[in-house]
Structure formats: C-alpha cells, structure tokens
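Running co-folding for pyridoxal-5'-phosphate.
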Amino acid sequence: MEKKNIDWSNLGFAYMQTDKRYVSNYKDGAWDEGTLTSDANIVLNECACVLQYAQTCFEGLKAYTTEDGHIVTFRPDLNAQRMASSAKRLEMPVFPEDRFVEAVHKVVEANAAYVPPYGSGATLYIRPYMFGSNSVIGVKPAEEYQFRVFTTPVGPYFKGGAKPITIRVCDYDRAAPHGTGHVKAGLNYAMSLYAIVDAHEKGFDENMYLDSATRTKVEETGGANFLFVTKDNTVVTPKSPTILPSITRRSLLYVAEHYLGLKTEEREVYMDEVKDFAECGLCGTAAVISPVGKIVDHDREICFPSGMEKMGPVIQKLYDTLTGIQMGHIEAPEGWIHKIC
Ligand code: PLP
Ligand code: COI
C-alpha cells in the first residue's frame, strides 16, 4: 500500500479529510449493520437533538506504525467502554463495545495510506462519536442516533511539540459535582471554548481547572489529565469524580509501577501543594505527555525545577516507555496493542 504524499513531520493537530469513515444508524430500538462510506458530510433536520440540546459524545484514540511496519491501535477496548458510559449518562443507546472496536479497525484499515510512517512523529487520530439525529423540540432524548468514526493524520497537540508549556489556573469551571465531567460529552468542550480562547489571548497554552465546589483541588485541563512527580520520584495524579478517566493516565500509572519501578499515588491534589512538585505534565491521547514548565495562579507563578527547555527526567522516561510500547519496540502488557495489519 502506497502512503499519501503528506509532509508527515510538519503536521499540526488539525483535521484532514481521509478516504473512508464508518457509519451506523440507530432506529426503532436497534443499530443497523453499519458501513464504510466516502461521504464526509452529514445531513440533519434543523431540529435534530444534537443541534438543539447537544446530545452527543465522542472518543479519541490513535493508530501507530510500529518499528517493524505494522499498524496498531492502543487499548481501543477502553475507548469502547468509556463511550458506553458516556452514552448511558446522556440517555443514548450504547453502541456495542465489540462493534466499536471492529468499526475502528475497519476505518483504520481503509485509511492505511494516511497512517503516518514510523519515526515521522505523527499518528493517525481516530474520532468515534455519536449523536441524537431525529427532530426533538421538547427537552428529551432523541429516538434515532448515528454512530460514526473518522480518522485524520495529526502531529503534536501543542505547537512546540515536547517543549514545556505555560498554563494558568482558570476562574471558569469545567465540571460540576454530579455533572458530566467524568464522561466525554461534547457539552463539556462547548463550555470550555470561552475559557480556552481567553487563555490563548492572554498568552497561555491551556487552562488548569480546579474543583468547582471548593476551588482548592486540581482537576484537569480542557483536554488532558495531570501528572505530577514529587522530589523523591513518586508519580501523583489527581483523583476526582468530575474528571475524565484518561486511558493514557491509567496506562502511565501502570508503566510507572511495572516498567519503571516508581511509586504512584492517585489521590486528591491540593493547589497549595503544587509548588512542591518537581515535574508536571499533561497526559492524554492528543497530548501524549506534554510537559508543563510554569503554572500562573493569578499573581503567583509556579515554575517547576524541570524548567522551560525540556521534559523533566521522570516524565521523559514515562514518555519514552509509553511511546515505545505504542510503536512496538518495548513489549506491551497483554491486550494493550490491537493489530490492524
Ligand atoms: N481529559 C479530557 C477532558 C480529555 O478530553 C481527554 C482526551 O481524551 C483526556 C483527559 C485524556 O484521555 P485519554 O488519555 O483517554 O485520551
Ligand atoms: C483526545 O486526546 O483524544 C481528546 O479528545 C482531547 C481533545 C482536546 C482533542
């Protein structure tokens, strides 16, 4: 299979239309058999539930070219599980988890020419999503839905790649107690748009959200979980019922313990203790691990000892091990790698 003529090493995190996408429709209480299509557009009624009441959720995962030339995805079963929990919270029918993994497989296979080559620094981002598609004007769930999966080749989420970023403590909230912060609902992202535009205008790369009940604890950013490293090399991640359960973060905790022999803690992290950490990073599918060099908390600046030039040593080891597992030069734990071809 011949690869597309794309400047892989200079890709940003942006949408590029690829050849095929998957679509399955839900009607009269059942999903149809699903199919691949070349049509990237969706035609909806003006009163579709997704357009009026934002009944939509999504997932994000990546396909990688391994050192020995295979195409693989990373833990797609966990994305399937998380989408099922998002769907339940939003009163949407679950797209069966085994069919989710199969749909991702088919779309990646059909777009193999767009999977960036090994060593290019780019990957194929995969976006499964679903939405309420029939017209609804009273506030209630739709009766018809569409589940789709598209792909797009991407480079680093933050412009500087692996350069440390600067973030600010945000005065807006991302998620309410007992709200939808723990699921991947489109509405969580809609309400973060004002805050991210404001952050960018003020020169920050991202927002650090605090818990909205007490504003004393670290939650996450608009698109990634936090990872901290203490001065004695313990990896600490915030535990909260209102953050998204990141698959990258869960994988990194395993890597820290079982591959690197580090101590890990998943616990509440108070803003007051952040200044005592040695390293900080953001982790997620899009972010991979993006090092944070500085956090601006209103009139106070927290500068991590790892500095603004490169990743700290522990975060670098975590990054190398995780990407090594994904690219096939470090042996993966059982079931983490799904081979496409
Ligand atoms: N937190 C938020 C709000 C996200 O959007 C994402 C991205 O999916 C993550 C965390 C990271 O999750 P994952 O590692 O499963 O991609
Ligand atoms: C992902 O990492 O897959 C996300 O959905 C985050 C988003 C900011 C692109």
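Result summary
The radius of gyration is 20 Å.
DSSP finds seven helices and 17 strands in the chain.
Job closed.
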